[in-house]
Amino acid sequence: MNRRDMRNYGPPGYQWELWHEGPVRDRQNIVLVHGYRLPLSTLPGRCDEQFGCLDRLLQDATGCNVWQFEYVGSPWGTYDSVSVYARRLDAALTRISEITGNSHCSMIGYSMGGLIARRYIAMSGKPKVDKLLTLATPHMGTLRFEPFSIPRTERFYPMAGIEIRPDSRLLWDLNTNVESSTVEQFAALGGYSWGNSDGTVEIGSTSLVKCADDGSVKEKYYFAGVPRSHLSINRIKSDSDEVFQMIMGFLTGGVCGISRVRCPENPGDYHVPFFLTFSVADAGPGKRPSPRVVVTATGRTYRGPRIWTQGARTESGAQIYTVQLRPDDNGEARIYYGPREFSTVQVQSGQSTVVVRPVGTGTARAATSTE
């Protein structure tokens, strides 16, 4: 996208770039953070096209300064970790503050860009971000896109691809401490053009919730689904676009503003599969857990290859696992972490969740001979 008035305000070189069109005004700032980049998909000195005309439309409609942040600084694509890109986002926002005299911004993150924004907020950015809207962001991870479905041991793969899996340490840290990685005005949109997903990210993963120790939902954040693919949800072409109207509602009125455009929904309304992520406490030397999950209401059992792990561990040393449940799985589920020992957790149809407390610690039950 080589517009005549488009200018890069980033530093010399190609570690990151910061694009803006037209004069810089003494106004509010809106920052667009793009998604995962495949190798050779971007070039230095050229603004990306992942947002279509969104920056221009927003600038015309709001009068704000709209910035496109390009965090990929290598022809290898999105090769580094989400934390590396979050630190570059921090540097970009410092640059914006220097240029405009305003250290606050609203942020729109597309796909992995939403996770980079959340990681930035968790690191140091909460005071600077007034609003955060995510588009097709896999808050609870994804297994559909092939580069992400890789074992942790394959070090030649992009680190960000490993981190976006549901069983990654990054997502565990973000989703077990949601307060630190979000702001008060937060909303998420997901796509369902392929039924269960937008073709890349499961719709049950695009909704963010705050979970309790047993996996139950303590607090929901605004969420709505749109009939768009992963590659079209962010490419805004006109101000009549449904997604643009929702973006405008959020930027001008926060959660209340977007709710007036579209009432909040639940992923379960779309009857979609969803992830349950949990961790199993270290049982001691030589003992390797082989957990299985049993949903009480349906009697369905998940075990073996249906329960994924890349070997990542929590700060306490518990190993992280993920299982994808069916749309009708709802209510009580048992996570067996030993031959006859289990912890009881709660699942909600369609809503991916994380069990904050490692199973195998605290309350546990022993299965009876009739179970």
Structure overview:
With 371 residues, this protein is α/β, with parallel strands linked by helices. The protein folds into two domains: 262 residues, Alpha/Beta hydrolase fold, catalytic domain (Rossmann fold); 98 residues, Immunoglobulin-like (Sandwich), CATH 2.60.40. It contains seven helices and 19 strands. A hairpin with a 4-residue loop joins strand 16 and strand 17. The relative contact order is 0.12.
Strand content: 15-25%
Helix content: 10-25%
Query: What is the fold-level CATH name, i.e. the topology of the largest domain?
Result: Rossmann fold
Shape: globular
Rg to the nearest angstrom?
A: 21 Å
CATH architecture title of the largest domain: 3-Layer(aba) Sandwich
Number of strands: 19
pLDDT below 50 for ≥5 consecutive residues: which ranges?
363-371
What is the tally of helical segments? Answer: 7
Spell out the CATH superfamily of the largest domain. Answer: Alpha/Beta hydrolase fold, catalytic domain
The major β-sheet equals: 8 strands, mixed
Strand arrangement across the biggest beta sheet = 1-2-4-3-5-6-7-10
Number of domains: 2
Give the termini separation. 62 Å
**Order of secondary-structure elements:** EEEHEHEHEHHHEEEEHEEEEEEEEE
